[in-house]
Amino acid sequence: MRMTNLLSSGTLLLLGATGASAHGPPSPGSSGLSSFGGANLLASTGTPLGQEFAHQNITFYLSTPKPGNGPLGAGPRHDTHKGDAILYLTDVFGIALPQNRLLVDSFARAGYLTLAPDLFQGEPASADINTPGGPVFDPVAFLAAHGTLQTDPVVETAINYLRNTLNVTRIGVAGYCFGGKYAFRFVAPGRGGDVAFTAHPSLVEESEILAIDKPLAIAAADHDELLNATVRVRFEELLGQTGERYQINVYGGTTHGFAVRGDQNVPSQKYGKEEAFVQAVRWFDTLL
């Protein structure tokens, strides 16, 4: 099945690709994060520690690695990634969602200066849309208001800020769900990204996959009615045609949004979120 535009009837389509699978929780006492600092690098709860500020009428959330073992302390990784940065592109819930801010902080603890722009100019989807009785969410209207014409300039401003104000030389793009589309778009020629990671990307077109000229990794959920094996295989076929290095992991027992909003009381989702973070950090460590 060829899919040229992976958006249907106003529904956010979740896309990934087949590859190595990570099924179930680790054995007792083990942690996929232990190889580079332990599970304390990844925070799913708590108070975000970065700073919010405005630049050229866009709100940013920035987290900077610190020496030592404090709340944003990167320990021995503090000096490992000087000149590198991660551009964090959010799901539809934007930088207001605590889990997004906590992931930005977690990348900082892994040693990366990390910047997240407000992709929605102060109008993200409400975090309560999946709650019974919560606000009504109209995905058609939302996506019409936040297409590439509106979103590309925000991402471009963020890249320019990293390179020209913070003097970053290499940028890893980390896109989640809605932001995953822009992870693809900004590792195309001349777009400013040097390597990309995306978890459960949505709205990605075939032309955007084929256009990449930098390495890209995907973390996909296995339980989602819109993330089926046929679509994942097509992603793999298209990535293979690019000639670029790619990685695709499918995490068992997870659902759409697990890498950001996975239920930490469900072992398979907790494990999936941790390992997707590990996947991202190792990918950036290797290729930035």
Automatic annotation (TrEMBL):
<dbReference type="GO" id="GO:0016787">
    <property type="term" value="F:hydrolase activity"/>
</dbReference>
<feature type="domain" description="Dienelactone hydrolase">
    <location>
        <begin position="79"/>
        <end position="286"/>
    </location>
</feature>
<dbReference type="InterPro" id="IPR002925">
    <property type="entry name" value="Dienelactn_hydro"/>
</dbReference>
<feature type="signal peptide">
    <location>
        <begin position="1"/>
        <end position="22"/>
    </location>
</feature>
<dbReference type="InterPro" id="IPR029058">
    <property type="entry name" value="AB_hydrolase_fold"/>
</dbReference>
<protein>
    <submittedName>
        <fullName>Protein AIM2</fullName>
    </submittedName>
</protein>
<keyword id="KW-0732">Signal</keyword>
<dbReference type="Pfam" id="PF01738">
    <property type="entry name" value="DLH"/>
</dbReference>
